[in-house]
Amino acid sequence: MVTNPENPSKEEIERHELTHAKYKSWCKHCQKGLAKRDAHARHSKAIRRKYKTRAMGEVDVPDTEEPVDGVTKYSMDYAIVGSEKEENKNTILVLVNHEDGGIFTYAPTGKGIIGERVWLAKRIAKDIDNCGSKDARIQIKNDQEPAIVTLQEGIREVRRGKTMCVNSPVAESERNGRAENAILRTEVELRALRSDLESCMKAKLN
């Protein structure tokens, strides 16, 4: 008998609630994660970002893309997450692999790599290498925010493989669209995890 996907088993529910990594229409927490978007649309379409540039009209940013000339691309950007209260907001860094759409998130103590934050460049370089890109040529894309450009250069210095840095024009940060996509996907999962945690605690987080 074929299992109805809208009626998951207890084991499937428990396994899913460990991470909420993949959107499930039957999960109330996943639905809350997409609350700011269309919860009835397919997950990949619901989080796909459209953006505009001066040279192009409105375009879709696909979730993945094939490497060109053997170069795997990564994009990264900072994001602000947390509750609606300003004092509870935090800065995170989101890195996305263009080839498979995989996302890494980091919680730095601040922006850039000054002082104790030098660990971030080393951690990102290690994560990239662990994706099978240890000796491969890669390209890291981001906008021209000084702190993230500094981090980008730090990654290039510590990686053994060739690392090419690409920065979008100052007035056209929208070109870093895949990083923005990754941030949206991260926000969706964070809202789902928050909803699940509040449900377990039977309390509202600030």
Polypeptide structure, described:
The chain has 206 residues and is of the alpha/beta class. The chain is 34% helix and 18% strand. The chain contains 6 helices and 7 strands. The strands form 2 sheets. A 5-stranded mixed β-sheet has the order 5-4-3-6-7, with helices on both faces. Strand 1 and strand 2 form a beta hairpin. Helix 4 packs across helix 5. About 11% of the residues have low confidence.
Core attributes:
206 residues, alpha/beta, five-stranded mixed sheet, two-stranded antiparallel sheet, 7 strands, 34% helix, globular
Chain-wise SSE layout:
Layout: H1 10-16, H2 28-33, H3 43-46, E1 50-51, E2 59-60, E3 72-82, E4 89-97, E5 103-106, H4 119-133, E6 138-142, H5 146-158, E7 163-167, H6 177-201
Parallel strand pairs: 3-6, 6-7
Antiparallel strand pairs: 1-2, 3-4, 4-5
Helix pairs in contact: 4-5
- The computed structural class is alpha/beta
Uncertain ranges: 37-59
Mean pLDDT: 77
Strand tally is 7
Beta-strand level of the residues, as a percent range?
15-25%
**Per the principal axes of the C-alpha atoms, what is the gross shape?**
globular
